[in-house]
Amino acid sequence: MSKSLATAHIIKTGPGTSIQDLGRIDYGKYGIPISGCMDAKSAHWVNLQLNNPSDSAVLEISQPGLVMSFSAPTFISIAGAQSQVKVNGKEIPNPSFIPIKTKDQLEIGQFITGARLYLGIKYGFKSQLELSSRSFYKEITPLAFFSKEGKISYWDEPSSSGILHSKAKWDHTWYETEELEVYTGPDWKLLDNEKKSYLLEHRFHISPLTNRMGAQLLETIENNLPELPTNPVFPGTVQLTSGGKVIILGQDAQVTGGYPRIFQLTDLAISILAQKKPGQVVRFSKVNG
Question: How many CA atoms lie within 13 A of 24 on its CB side?
Fold first, then answer.
């Protein structure tokens, strides 16, 4: 049976709802951020549940309060933050695989744990493709974030072949750890032993200055590090400024920077950080010698 293009209507949303995929790879030489999902682990999981390619576009939701409806049948999967999920007013206790019928209304309520939720749809959302990615980014795509009355295209799935008699349950405990595993960065050697020990032995609090550009930590570290020539940086690069601020770069961060690069988060640590809220605690754990 052939597929038809359908529309998901966003009736209500909090700030920070966007379409994301694996991002814009190989465009850093033009100064273009990678973008893509902040928590790639959760995004990969929903696409796996739907038997989608790993680069299929998903909805990244960073605030509760999303309400949306669907113009045609499909299947969706939800992972990331633990939240209250309802379809037509009925709570869905395990939203890992949800059949959707025409005119069904989905509601995302309170986030119980975690900070970002990922909504995948069968065949992926079909937002505009820009520079080989559907990821929203202000300077490249028409929208940076959705507001109410937003519309997203998707392919319908009228068959029942995707109905499962059992389904996997998303585990929320993996991001509850405080530990962020890191590799030492290229400028780690510029720190004295006292500063190195402090960074690896102390706990740090996420500041309110946290978004898709990056996360700043509340605690500062006095140092005499020099300003460096501009060097490549990536999502998960940890910088220490001359003023003592510790900044962890996010998916929409710049691609070069002059602050010393003291750590690089592992892929899993990047996803764990994406699920942390302001005020929560993290600590660095070195995984190389």
Answer: 25
Angle, helix 40-49 to helix 267-274, in steps of 10 degrees: 90
Residues 6+ apart with CB under 8 A from 147: 10, 13
CB-based contacts of 170, cutoff 8 Å, min separation 6: 42, 45, 78, 79, 94, 95, 96
Q: Is the CB of residue 254 less than 8 Å from the CB of residue 230?
A: no
Q: What is the pLDDT along the chain (289 residues), one digit of tens a residue?
A: 578 999 999 999 999 999 999 999 999 999 999 999 999 999 999 999 999 999 999 999 999 999 999 999 999 999 999 999 999 999 999 999 999 999 999 999 999 999 999 999 999 999 999 999 999 999 899 999 998 889 999 999 987 555 555 678 888 899 999 999 999 999 999 999 999 999 999 999 999 999 999 999 999 999 988 888 899 999 999 999 989 999 999 999 999 999 999 999 999 999 999 999 999 999 999 997 5
- All domains of the chain in start order, with CATH: 5-169 (no CATH), 177-286 (2.40.100.10)
